[in-house]
Amino acid sequence: MKIIIQTAILCLAAILNSCNGPADNDNIYSTAPEGAIVLFDGSDFSEWTNCDGGEVRWEIVDGIMEVVPDSTWGCERIQGTRTKRLFKDFQLHLEFRLPENENTNSGIYIQKRYEVQINNSFNAEFSPGMGGSLYRQKVPDVVVGKPVGEWESYDIIFRSARFDENDPQEKIENARITVIHNGVVIHNNVIVKTKTGVGFPEGPEPGPIMLQDHLAIVQFRNIWIIPNEPVETLPPDNH
Description:
Number of strands: 15
Helix content: under 10%
Largest sheet: 8 strands, antiparallel
CATH topology: Jelly Rolls
Shape: globular
CATH superfamily: Exo-inulinase, domain 1
Number of domains: 1
Strand content: 25-35%
Number of helices: 1
Order of helices and strands: HEEEEEEEEEEEEEEE
């Protein structure tokens, strides 16, 4: 079963790459697949809000979403920009570019609970908090980061934690996540045991996708998501 799951994920990675093309400087607007919700196509912030629910304080520069460092102050726990829509299970695609300086720290918060780290991992040694990490829980299986200044991509397949219908405080299954970084699987159906870092407490309700403001001028483009219906539990790859 594990081999079948891994093969399916590798095929998905190939499909995503084929659909979206390479995350390079010449391919800013690739086409989202049928059924996807386009969260950012370079035109406006209509799908987004500041983390406190107010107006977005970041900028759109030449069709690219750009962090304005320390502009999202006043938010509880995590600063950043989040989606107006809430999600449970989904497939998410986004592309990001790190600034050409030493401070490259950022992240993608799933449901404002679980962080996939954005950081410079080009030729990096494995270490906690490195690019591609599930923050404070697991480093990536392989390092495939590009040099700062080049566009990179994440494709994230997420299955939310499950809670008892009669007791919404009782978790009966952990969340699971697969992350494909620049077309390579770096987390394969991994169990996420609890919220990461300063993420919000786990619960049965859906949550937004949040892009972190961590004082770095990170850029984002081509963001789309496909919400999924709940599926049966699959065996985790928990090495």
